Amino acid sequence: MTATIYRSPIADQVIPDVPVTQHVLRRAEELADRPALIDGTTGRIITFSQLSDAIARLAGGLTARGVGAGATVGLMAPNVPEYATVFHGVAVAGGTVTTINPIYGAEEVRFQLNDSGASLLVTLPDFLATAREAVEGTSVTEIAVIGEAEGVPSLDDLMGEPIAQVPIDPATQVVVLPYSSGTTGLPKGVMLTHRNLVANIVQGSAVFDYGDDEVALAVLPFFHIYGMQVLMNGLLAEGITVVTMPRFDMEKGLELIQTHGVTQFFAVPPIVLGLAKHPAVDDYDLSSLRKIFCGAAPLGGELGEEAAARIGCPVVQGYGMTELSPVSHATAGADAKSGSSGVTVPNTECRIVDDEGRDVLPDTPGELLVRGPQVMVGYLNNPEATAATIDDDGWLHTGDVARIDADGHLFIVDRVKELIKYKGFQVPPAELEALIVTHPAVADVAVIGIADLEAGELPKAFVVVKDGEAVTAEELQAFVADRVAGYKQIRLVEFVDEIPKSASGKILRRFLRDKG
After folding, report:
1. Are 81 and 129 in contact (CB under 8 A)?
2. What is the pTM of this model?
3. Do 193 and 257 share a structural domain?
């Protein structure tokens, strides 16, 4: 059977064969005095000229310390302007960055430091205690901080004479090692090259449709591939001013949008949920917003439309994963289709296949496969997992169930491993979550499968009720039953105070499964 390959409606782009920092700073001289990064907490500004200079000086200092080609630097920090300095300073020095979630415990950090072979760890004073505990038994020989801490070198102490890019091969040099569980198993180092990152920035640029006077709010963590590439690198490459937030707070975020005239806001579904329902939204002037872009997890079409109507700007979606640097699909400009993750980005091919690997008919659900220059080179120290994820023809198996309609729009149905099997039927949790959250009394929801001898698994909803509202389990079950097929009905309901989520906004279903 001939493969059905879907391609982008947008023409392929020329991908420059250059290091990622050269591409990200391509407009730095032209925009020397424009703010590149604004610290949302303090208002401190770093211009494009200052950023470029700091990166070159850090690269020189790292090289003088022997941190260069073959070396890996751990970067454990929330969103602060210096994140870009460290990331690109290491890149210019010819090294590799492994980005670490700063709220990890010492054991989680130690695992990543050991697996990546990091020799230097850069963090903030607030996370120094965890860092010191985590480096025990690893190859890390030095900890440095962004800021000041007694007995520890600061980022300023690492600076040296500025240098140009250390020669590297963009196609083979791994520049960053974010960690991902992929489709299964424990976290694995995702090897992304300079070319992977540059390719995806160029691909994204062709669909995001930015103007020349944009300001973006960056609350999504830079240690996560979405924040790292779509926000930090992608925005800076377009000459866009990035306002950083170390952690998301709805009212602070709204204040920053109003204060800085933010035009582009990148979100995850829980944030869009807040924009649709949080009472504080009405207290701020958000008229500067031109677009809200949502990713990292599926967003129900009705919720997106509700938020768009309230804010007065389009809410659009995209799709990606760490192993794809991360974007394979995105809404072109503001040309959104309800519930869609957009179209295939340029220079990319995708397929939808069944459980036997056979291509399915258009608009039929199946596993999404992707091939393109943004596909990772593999998992670090794990050839078996790499071979299980990328086949011999270069197709990356995403582990996501999706369909592509007649217009080429992608709709994510669910994760393969998150599908609930009820009496032989496949029940997608994301579909039920998108429905239940439209109930007027519901603030948030997550759905998982609970083991059952007769049915295999029973769909169970964990529900957060809005302040001042009341709803019973029976009312919610009836609400769902009126709107979905019989096998998709919610069999169990538990009311909870909050839904556990990762920093990137994905529901941590394993914690809910532990609750049972």
Report:
1. no
2. 0.86
3. yes
